[in-house]
TrEMBL record:
UniProt domain Flagellar basal-body/hook protein C-terminal: residue ranges: 398-443
Organism annotation: Pseudomonas benzenivorans
Gene: flgE
Location of the protein in the cell: Bacterial flagellum basal body
Chief site of localization: other
Protein name: Flagellar hook protein FlgE
Domain Flagellar basal body rod protein N-terminal: 4-33
Length: 444
């Protein structure tokens, strides 16, 4: 019996050494979680059960448990490196085989899919054609590296102040080349369907008390007729308190196609610039203007100036925004702490490309290690609880960083010394039992 007891001790010490050695070997492995050996004593049992004075029969390895405590966050400055600060695992797919990992080495493959260093695809929520996240539909995350298509301007929102102390210009008629024929002006870039930028200039001419006329040229030309410099025009009025009088908005001229310059919505005060023909100038002197082959937004450009005022202060544009842009190349990626992936383009636009998901389990100890710093679901772990970072009990994401192994090397070296001493002690037990047996054999 003593031989078996000593032998069980040797086996236990060997297992302890193996587990400790594996921990030390992976001290530099990103996302690695250390393990520990858990032992239990053995007692021989009979049909009648064990007695109160039963001698022990040795030791057994009852379990190898994994310790999922947080590792240190190490910053790498690589935008697609990801670390989880808190609970959860990345979910990856290898041709449909799902595994879970804390190692956040991610990049893109030749097809644009986000993959780890073994080529397993990162899972998350994708976006539709309009950039809206499809929550609840888990798929392989993909980064669209193609150029962003241009968008023609469809809305323009402005807020400006016209100086109420201005007087009616004495020089007439209006001439954009003569500043004495208007009181103030401002310019804004707008875009056609091919992403070409055009300068829309608004000239404001005071026509009487609380009354103004706004003249509009695009690239210095009539919006509907590039051969003409006659502007679109609109009358505007203000109340005694300096607020825009929506009922006063009225188109004053007619474009080259015979339609009104602006279509006014009296209910909202917004108006639409109709009939714009995007133009381009040739290299002759003076230049000859003609259509550039692109078109304006099919529904025209809806302009909103309802926040404009007329106060006794200098002309100023308080706010301006428009929704058009030219084509853009992918300039960079950003991932926030909730896992949302933002793509930035050279045209100043940004677009959501997807959102990383995390998985958690009721019993993380029950996960099955499958190598490559990954785990697989098991019966003991239970079903994964899927969510986005920072939702529920799931941790936050840190982009540009990796989670170090949670192995404390000094602690493991102490464990190795203890395991070595245990091995030596059990070997001494066997040696002593051998000596006793030899003594018996030598009796004459």
């Amino acid at each position: 019996m003593s031989f078996n007891i000593g032998l069980s001790g040797l086996r236990a010490a060997t297992s302890d050494l193996n587990i400790t050695g594996n921990n030390i070997a992976n001290a530099g492995t990103v996302g690695f979680k250390q393990s520990r050996a858990e032992f239990a004593d053995l007692y021989a049992a009979s049909v009648q059960g064990t007695g109160s004075n039963q001698q022990g029969a040795g030791v057994q390895l009852s379990n190898v448990s994994q310790l999922f405590n947080q590792g240190n966050i190490n910053y790498t400055q690589n935008a697609l490196d990801l670390a989880i600060n808190g609970n959860g695992f990345f979910q990856t797919s290898n041709n449909g085989e799902i595994s879970y990992t804390r190692a956040g080495y991610f990049g893109t493959d030749r097809e644009g899919f986000m993959v780890n260093n073994f080529g397993h695809r990162l899972q998350g929520y994708a976006t539709d054609a309009n950039g809206n996240l499809q929550n609840g539909v888990i798929t392989d995350l993909r980064i669209e590296s193609a150029s962003q298509s241009p968008q023609a301007t469809s809305t323009l929102t402005q807020g400006f102040n016209l100086n109420s102390t201005n007087t009616v210009p004495v020089t007439t008629p209006f001439n954009p080349a003569d500043p004495t024929t208007y009181n103030s002006a401002t310019s804004t870039n707008i875009y056609d369907t091919q992403g070409n930028a055009h300068v829309m200039t608004q000239y404001f001419v005071k026509t009487g008390p609380n009354a103004w006329q706004m003249n509009v040229l695009i690239d210095g030309r009539n919006p509907a007729d590039p051969t003409s410099t006659v502007p679109y025009s609109m009358g505007m009025g203000f109340t005694a308190s300096g607020q825009l009088n929506i009922a006063s908005l009225a188109s004053g001229n007619y474009d080259g196609a015979g339609g009104p310059d602006f279509t006014v919505d009296p209910a909202t005060g917004r108006f639409t610039l109709d009939g714009w023909t995007p133009a381009i100038a040739d290299s002759s002197v003076p230049p000859v203007w003609s259509a550039n082959g692109a078109t304006a937004n099919a529904a025209g450009i809806q302009v909103d100036i309802r926040n404009s005022t007329q106060f006794a202060s200098a002309f100023a544009v308080n706010s301006v925004s428009q929704d058009g842009y030219t084509t853009g190349q992918l300039a960079g990626l950003e991932i926030d702490d909730t896992g949302v992936i933002f793509a930035r383009y050279t045209n100043g636009q940004s677009r959501v490309q997807g959102q990383v998901i995390l998985a958690n389990f009721a019993n993380t100890q029950g996960l099955t290690p499958v190598g490559k710093t990954g785990w697989a679901q098991s019966f003991q772990s239970g079903e994964p609880v899927i969510g986005t970072p920072r939702s529920g009990t799931l941790g936050a994401l840190q982009a540009g960083a990796l989670e170090d192994s949670n192995v404390e090397v000094s602690e493991q070296l102490v464990n190795m010394i203890v395991a070595q001493r245990n091995y030596q002690a059990n070997a001494k037990t066997i040696e002593t039992e051998s000596a006793i047996t030899q003594t018996i054999i030598n009796l004459r």
